[in-house]
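User: I've been trying to design a sequence by hand for this structure and keep getting stuck. Would you show me what you'd pick, starting by listing the structure so we're on the same page?

Assistant: Good idea, let's start from the same input. This is the structure you sent:
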């Protein structure tokens, strides 16, 4: 007796985000955290470090997106 073939996946059963998007966002978070920590050590202001980290994260997201291509 043979087993039936597996059913095809449902149309909406794909991943939530692609591996490329996950890699870009993860790298941007790491870069933003590094910028924030270095800014905090340099300036000593937590608010300034958070703003610098967010800016570094956003800029690196766009840069990595353009660098890796579609």
């Amino acid at each position: 007796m043979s087993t039936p073939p597996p059913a095809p996946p449902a149309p909406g059963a794909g991943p939530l985000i692609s591996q490329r998007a996950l890699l870009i966002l993860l790298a941007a978070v790491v870069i933003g955290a590094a910028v924030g920590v270095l800014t905090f050590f340099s300036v000593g202001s937590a608010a300034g470090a958070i703003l610098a980290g967010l800016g570094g994260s956003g800029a690196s997201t766009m840069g990595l997106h353009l660098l890796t291509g579609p």
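That's my pick for every position. To get oriented when you compare it with your attempt: DSSP finds two helices and no strands in the chain. The CA atoms of residues 35 and 53 lie 5 Å apart.
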